[in-house]
Amino acid sequence: MRRTLVAALAGGVIAATLTGCSDDAAPQPQGSPVEQPPVELEVAQPTAEPVTLGVIATLSSDPGQGADVLVPAEGTQVAAYRLELGGQPVELRVADDRGTEEGARAAVEELVNARVSGIVAATTGDHLLPALDDAAAADTAVLLPYVRDAAGLPAGAWLTGPTSTAVGTALSSAMAEAELSTPFLVTGDGVTLPGVDAVGRADYAEGDSDAVVRAVKQAVRRSGADSVVIAASAPSQAQLVSRLQGSVTDLPLVLSPEALSPDFADQVEDAQGTTSARFVTAGVDASDATTLTSGERADAVASYFSALRMMSDTERLDLFDSVPFAEVATGADTASHDAVVALVTAAVQAGSASPGDVLSALDGLQVDAADGVVGPALDFSATEALPAESVVELNATSQDPGVRPNDGTASLFWFAAPSAG
């Protein structure tokens, strides 16, 4: 029998996980109280001086050049907060790269001159590449939680999130299991999905969704297209989704991981689309719904969200000191958090906050839940530090597990498909 991409919504996985939930109600506790895992992250031997890390983020940019992961980058603050609670001081020095090559190189220069121990490039886009060479020349490690292509990366730069190849493989597997054999692929903003075998393809230029809709309709008529795969920035995906929902009904939509950005759900509704639809993407099993399962990963994710809620009740500000942290907390993610944890773990291993020592300690290091990462273990013996097998199918639901602060904006919550493990 054909398994739809949201079978779990209808068939019971998410319903079982979120027992008793409606779209407007958080899960109710059942049975005896469970001891909450600790929020603080303790290290074996704190460094003699605070670890100062650079964070490159993008306040504003063209689509696909980093601005849509600005809020997810707030996870870096959660990691610093948790490490401080555990006795390891961490300072974050933030630089806006403006989504341009010139801005990225200036940001790296600023952070290198400040002698940061390492850099989390919490942005994405090809504008970053020349700046990474600058960091390598200065013997400063750079971790990239949102870049998915290792081509052109210098030594000392590591991908800590899913690669494009791993995403393409996971989505192809999900479509095969759902018996979707003739997808139509839409790409834009420089986002690619290698390995997706499509019956047709369209390139999306900002503001030209009509051409994509026409191409999809033609592919349905002529080639029997049974789904649409969209690989583009979160804003572009939102525009395309809203247009397709009004023009090509009941066609499953498969999305690149840019859809995990909180901007996607907000902008779908702003464009008069609906988030109560069939969406699937690929990523790691470290989301809201993971907290309602059991095991080491569930405990790690629960600790992360406990810290997120605690921080939201403080007077902390966002990365750029422009708004209260509580206003951006709902979109902070675990990928940027884990990049900070990895760099601090390397500093602790080196017994030094010197960038050269941290770089040397990071090379070949393995970092896992025992060190405080929330997602899958990271292996820095390869440029692609996240194992490909950790990238799994994720389905969307509007049911709120109730583990993060709710700021009243549109939200989607993603959970690993049952076949993922």
UniProtKB/TrEMBL annotation:
Query: Under which name does UniProt file this protein?
Result: Leucine-binding protein domain-containing protein
